[in-house]
């Protein structure tokens, strides 16, 4: 009996990175064809397109493959999470930074990333629910976060990750401010003036901050929270250096783990979700959705805890998460 071909929905962001996704689409399709897959290819033309493509075309597919940057993956996950049942996600990273790909151990080489998907091994991955929107690896506010979505696509394509660094250091530092916040989490609460905060499930945030790999598990039901209290402009380079060295003093630089967090501000503050603008909010509630999606990656990635056999799982209703 002839084996049933696996069906793939391939979503390509042709503007990601330095047009790698556009040039590599043929290679990806060729590899899938050689391995007896059926596939449907759709390209994004603007923000939110990947989510809509998943909603319209993913049902009945065995796998959704995203070819783009972290923002395209965010949109893909938001689409998958509203489907009646969870569908595994493959990721071919072609963006400027590819934070999550580095954490997941997914090669940035298009052919190697595609081969990993074809191999068929998946890991359960925790994602965040930010108010009523899903995100894959980081929600952040304050200093430097605006640089990720304020940097033009042209600069990203021309200079790659260096565009974030240039934009962040030379334009955003002068705008460093603080926000008075009340932060409630699993083990208690904090209150005060903060210049920066990140709620993440990754070993790297925008290529600027890296966490100790022994402190991060990608499917443990907890996210890592990094908070920086109000500081003078002259102190910023020193604080950044301490964060890079993972020198958290518990007072000015706070590191904690939690399954949920509520942040209340005196005024609306802008947030970034996976490198894209996430809106301005006075109150934010973030829940960790444990093992919410299945992502194609290596089985020997030490950042994942051992998992049980995969199961068919209905997606949660964000309105009912409390």
Describe this structure in words.
It is elongated and about 60 Å long. The relative contact order is 0.17. Helix 2 (49-57) packs parallel to helix 3 (70-80) and helix 7 (153-159) crosses helix 8 (161-172). It has 2 domains: 6-126 and 291-316, Probable inorganic polyphosphate/atp-NAD kinase, domain 1 (Rossmann fold, 3-Layer(aba) Sandwich); 135-288, Tumour Suppressor Smad4 (Sandwich). Helices cover 26% and strands 35% of the residues. Strands 5, 6, 7, 8, 9, 12, 13, 14 and 15 form a 9-stranded antiparallel beta sheet that branches. The mean pLDDT is 82. It has 9 helices and 15 strands. The protein is of the alpha+beta class and 322 residues long.
Notable characteristics:
Rossmann fold; nine-stranded antiparallel sheet; 2 domains; elongated; Tumour Suppressor Smad4
SSE layout:
Elements: E1 6-12, H1 20-34, E2 37-43, H2 49-57, E3 63-68, H3 70-80, E4 89-93, H4 99-104, H5 110-119, E5 122-130, E6 133-135, E7 138-142, H6 145-150, H7 153-159, H8 161-172, E8 179-185, E9 188-200, E10 204-205, E11 209-210, E12 223-229, H9 236-244, E13 253-258, E14 260-273, E15 276-296
Helix pairs in contact: 1-5, 2-3, 7-8
Give the gist of this structure.
By secondary structure, this protein is α+β, with helices and mostly antiparallel strands.
Supply the CATH architecture of the largest domain: Sandwich
How many H/I helical runs? 9
Q: Quick one: overall form?
A: elongated
> Strand share of the residues?
35-45%
Q: Under the CATH scheme, which class of the largest domain?
A: Mainly Beta
CATH fold naming of the largest domain: Tumour Suppressor Smad4
Instruction: Identify low-pLDDT runs.
Output: none
How many domain regions? 2
Report the order of strands and helices: EHEHEHEHHEEEHHHEEEEEHEEE
Q: Would you count the extended β strands for me?
A: 15
> What's the overall average pLDDT, rounded?
82
What distance lies between the first and last C-alpha atoms, to the nearest angstrom? 48 Å
Given helix and strand content, the structural type is: alpha+beta
The major pleated sheet works out as: 9 strands, antiparallel
What is the helix content?
25-40%
